[in-house]
Write a structure and sequence with these properties.
The complex is a heterodimer of chains A (335) and B (296).
Chain A (H helix, E strand, L loop, with lengths): L1 H9 L1 H18 L3 H26 L7 H19 L3 H20 L7 H21 L1 H4 L5 E2 L14 H24 L1 H11 L1 H6 L4 H27 L1 E2 L6 H14 L5 H16 L6 H16 L16 H17 L1
Antiparallel strand pairs in A: 1-2
Chain B lengths: L1 H31 L6 H18 L4 H24 L7 H23 L4 E2 L8 E5 L5 E5 H23 L1 H11 L1 H6 L4 H27 L1 E2 L4 H14 L5 H21 L5 H15 L13
Antiparallel strand pairs in B: 1-4, 2-3
Helix pairs in contact in B: 1-5, 1-8, 1-9, 1-10, 2-3, 2-4, 2-8, 2-9, 3-4, 3-8, 5-6, 5-8, 6-8, 9-10, 9-11, 10-11
The chains are: A mainly alpha (335), B mainly alpha (296).
């Protein structure tokens, strides 16, 4: 295993380029347009789950309202592009900034409080955003939603075909991973991880926890907004019920199953959940039962998820340590 | 003015149901020490238990309330075994996510087993209205339903308080909620007591569930997440573990909601409830309770 790692480190850049090239070929290699659509969904949810993973996985806060930030991004795109004809590429950062601003507002009441309060406030805020989207008819179209959101322009390609829209999601996903990797290796990212592992210890070492928690929240919300902005033209029609708390829990299921606290985790989770959703469509509502069982099973067996950060508090803290201690004792007596 | 007063009465009645939900929630959080997001589904199961009593036994409120309590109580055992018992020493987000998974599980199973359509709950309590004059031209309408609900909630709250203060099991529950290790050293079976506390909280949630169903004349399978959040909100207002203050928080949320929708439209009901919660968290994060500790 270490040899593989060594080899990977040596040819890291090359590996990434090959991977990116392979990803670029995917939409042309898939035989049916439906499959390309699935690939688009996987990429989109991978980024969305990644943005949630920033909050839940890296700073250890429990955000349950990612659907709200997603909705803000989608409605920014939907409302501004249909009413004023503003370009998609301009709205992409704008949607992110708006979502980050709302994220900042949401994080304000909870900075001095512990995680549980953040989860209820985010859940409440996401519901409030949904209700506003449902009732503020002049801007959000109310219960009718917003139809015929213009497709983005991209080098004159027909972006209404998933084959080309795929590249927009790929672009956002790659930028997200690149920026996030840099952020996580910086002072900011280390501060987040220290807050997750032990907030009191982090405070005593001089980390301004409320500042970094707020920053973390805004960063996560920013990317959710960006993904929302890209989502709106992709489905071409948005309405409030697409952003219910169930959507938020769906994304949550992705990071719980895929893994929290690593960059690869949400991608794995998004792939698994999206493929399961599509392949189990014939089971209708039974598939939500399967998700639920998967979430509970994950919490019992591997709380950090399939590809999550194993050597962290996400992996269960004391239960894990106790088990290891028991294992060590057992080993000692056997030896 | 008259409309305003009537809305106040509505708010009081709805607040009384919220207070019952919040009391149940606070018992769970206080005794187990972890929050639950499956509370809405627990209430739903209680409501369904009572609904099937209405279907098969006939309209008999005491039996229905017992059935609601019992079915939620039993579900409480499963919740406890699945989501709490293993995770007492683990980081809190693990049990939290577990309860979210459990709530998804129950919600979808119920939709599959009992059908996704909203079920009517009609004529449980006579649709009689008392008109109470308040001097001058002002009078308020008081429905029999509202009177029954308020009396029931008060009776249940008093019973629970007596149980906590006068019985051996109640004292054990309070000991566990104050300090699990100390309770363990005093010879209390902490795991069993925590399970009992969780189940009692769930049972109260079940009764609140059927009261809500009677109040709205229907049981739906989808709206319970919102009620669960209101129970949480009310409980937060009371400082999460203080029963009396949680009840007060529930009443406040009920009144704020109903007065809020008089000045806007009924769709903003939840906006007022959660907006009130968020403002309260900014101004007074410890809730109404005076002491600061006991954060969960």
């Amino acid at each position: 295993m270490s040899k593989v790692k060594e080899l990977f480190n040596k040819y890291q850049v090359l590996a990434y380029i090959v991977l990116l090239a392979l990803l670029c070929v995917v939409p042309f290699a898939l035989p049916k347009a439906v499959y390309v659509r699935y690939a688009c969904n996987i990429l989109m949810y991978a980024t969305l789950a990644g943005s949630l993973n920033i909050i839940n996985g890296y700073s250890g806060q429990t955000c349950l309202g990612q659907a709200g930030f997603f909705a803000i991004g989608a409605y920014t795109m939907g409302a501004l592009s249909t009413k004023f004809g503003i370009s998609f590429w301009l709205l992409l950062p704008l949607a992110g900034i708006l979502a980050a601003f709302v994220g900042f507002l949401v994080s304000l009441p909870t900075l001095k409080l512990k995680g549980i309060y953040l989860s209820i406030v985010t859940l409440g805020a996401s519901e409030i955003i949904r209700i506003i989207a449902q009732t503020w008819t002049p801007v959000t179209g109310g219960a009718m939603g917003i139809k015929q959101i213009p497709y983005p322009e991209m080098f004159g390609l027909d972006t209404f075909r998933p084959k080309y829209y795929y590249f927009i999601f790929l672009f956002i996903g790659v930028i997200f991973l690149f920026v996030t990797k840099r952020v996580l290796q910086s002072r900011v990212g280390r501060a987040w991880i220290s807050i997750r592992e032990d907030e009191i210890a982090a405070k005593s070492l001089g980390v301004q926890t409320s500042f970094y928690k707020s920053l973390n929240f805004m960063y996560g919300a920013f990317w959710a907004g960006v993904v929302g902005c890209a989502y709106a033209p992709f489905v071409n029609y948005i309405e409030a019920s697409q952003f219910s708390t169930d959507t938020g829990f769906n994304v949550l299921a992705m990071i719980v199953i895929g893994g929290q606290g690593t960059l690869i985790g949400p991608i794995v989770g998004s792939t698994i959940v999206t493929l399961l959703t599509e392949s189990l469509r014939f089971l209708e509502s039974w598939r939500y039962v399967i998700y639920a069982v998967l979430i509970i099973a994950m919490m019992w067996l591997r709380p950090q998820g399939i590809a999550g950060a194993s050597r962290s508090i996400l992996a269960g803290g004391k239960i894990k340590r106790k088990k290891q201690a028991a294992g060590a004792e057992g080993g000692a007596t056997n030896g | 003015m008259e409309y305003f007063l009537n809305q106040l009465v509505n708010g009081l009645c709805q607040g009384a149901i919220y207070a019952l939900m919040a009391i149940g929630y606070s018992v769970i959080v206080g005794v187990v020490g972890m929050v639950t997001f499956a509370y809405g589904e627990i209430m739903m199961i209680g409501a369904f238990g009572a609904y099937y009593v209405f279907q098969f036994v006939g309209i008999n409120l005491p039996i229905a309330l017992l059935a609601a309590f019992a079915s939620s109580f039993l579900l409480g055992i499963i919740v406890y075994k699945l989501c709490y018992e293993r995770f007492f020493n683990a980081p809190r987000h693990i049990s939290l996510l577990c309860t979210i998974g459990f709530s998804m599980l129950i919600k979808n199973l119920v939709q599959i087993v009992f059908g996704p359509e909203t079920k009517p709950v009609l004529n449980i309590i006579d649709n009689r209205t008392f008109n109470i004059p308040l001097g001058g031209a002002i009078s308020i309408d008081l429905k029999l339903l509202q009177i029954v609900v308020m009396i029931l909630v008060v009776v249940l709250a008093v019973t629970l308080t007596l149980f906590f203060n006068r019985t051996r099991a109640g004292v054990a529950l309070r000991a566990v909620s104050q300090n699990k290790d100390a309770a363990y050293l005093m010879g209390i079976n902490v795991k069993r007591t925590a399970m009992l506390g969780n189940c009692i909280g769930c049972g109260f949630g079940g009764i609140a569930g059927i009261l809500l169903a009677i109040y709205y004349y229907s049981i739906s399978t989808t709206t319970w997440g919102g009620f669960s959040m209101k129970a949480f909100a009310a409980s937060v207002l009371g400082g999460l573990v203080d029963l009396r203050m949680s009840a007060l928080g529930g009443l406040c949320i009920g009144i704020v909601e109903n007065l809020g929708i008089t000045i806007s439209s009924a769709t903003f009901r939840d906006v007022f409830a959660f907006g009130f919660l968020i403002i309260m968290l900014v101004l007074r994060p410890q809730g109404f309770a005076s002491k600061k500790g006991n954060r969960v």
